[in-house]
Amino acid sequence: MASGTRRPAQIYQIKVTLTDLQPPIWRRIQVRGDTTLAELHRILQCTLGWTDTHLHQFIIRGEHYGVPDEDNPEARQTRDERQYRLDDVAAGAGAPFTYTYDFGDNWEHILEIEKAFPPDKSVRYPVCVAGAHACPPEDVGGIPGYENFREAIRDPQHPGHKELSEWIGGSFDPEAFDLDEVNHILRSAK
């Protein structure tokens, strides 16, 4: 291969699982290895159903990646996610890393690279290939808040049912997952 020429980026198949919830909320995505972590953040927001209204970070092999904040001494050690590509920081198949979204609700996701393979010219990456269950609503109060929300939304006799139904704008199905809709959102976000 000529000097300065990179071979085409591998495709990484990643299983993304929101931790500590039952039944599990997960997605399986395929992304190019040359995707920056900032781009991966946007992909995760689309595939999980988050609205990108809170801070986030990746932790990969003990290093923190995100949006550095020079005014926050703790955040100064955060590496700029726009400068790092997935294929430069991920350890490869089987090596999990974390993505935390909304430091108040503390939604922690485990990302596991299941495999890497050459791109298929007929596929438009990134793509979500599987998943299960709806993502919790933003600002629901983390895992305890979401568990209370699910209980209240299912039971019309629950004291919080009416208020939470209005807050969510009608109905919410925690079992819902629409693969076509997720991929439509991914394509629209480019």
Explain this structure.
By secondary structure, the protein is an alpha+beta fold. It has 2 domains: 11-133 and 177-188, Structural Genomics Hypothetical 15.5 Kd Protein In mrcA-pckA Intergenic Region, Chain A (Roll); 135-174, no CATH class. Helix content is 25%, strand content 26%. It has 5 helices and 8 strands. It has an 8-stranded mixed sheet with strand order 5-4-3-6-7-1-2-8. Strand 6 and strand 7 (107-117) form a beta hairpin. Helix 1 crosses helix 5 (179-188). It is globular. The two termini are 31 Å apart. 25% of the residues are buried. The model has no long low-confidence stretch (mean pLDDT 91).
Chart the SSEs and their pairings.
Blueprint: E1 11-18, E2 25-32, H1 37-48, E3 56-60, E4 63-66, E5 79-80, H2 86-89, E6 97-101, E7 107-117, E8 127-132, H3 142-154, H4 161-168, H5 179-188
Parallel strand pairs: 4-5
Antiparallel strand pairs: 1-2, 1-7, 2-8, 3-4, 3-6, 6-7
Helix pairs in contact: 1-5, 3-4
Features:
Structural Genomics Hypothetical 15.5 Kd Protein In mrcA-pckA Intergenic Region, Chain A, 190 residues, alpha+beta
Average pLDDT rating: 91
Task: Please list the strands of the largest sheet in the order they lie side by side.
Answer: 5-4-3-6-7-1-2-8
Structural class: alpha+beta
CATH topology annotation of the largest domain: Structural Genomics Hypothetical 15.5 Kd Protein In mrcA-pckA Intergenic Region, Chain A
Number of strands: 8
| CATH class descriptor name of the largest domain | Alpha Beta
Shape: globular
Helix content: 10-25%
Which regions are unreliable across 5 or more consecutive residues at pLDDT < 50? none
Q: Give the count of structural domains.
A: 2
The rounded Rg comes to 18 Å
CATH architecture of the largest domain: Roll
Number of helix segments? Answer: 5
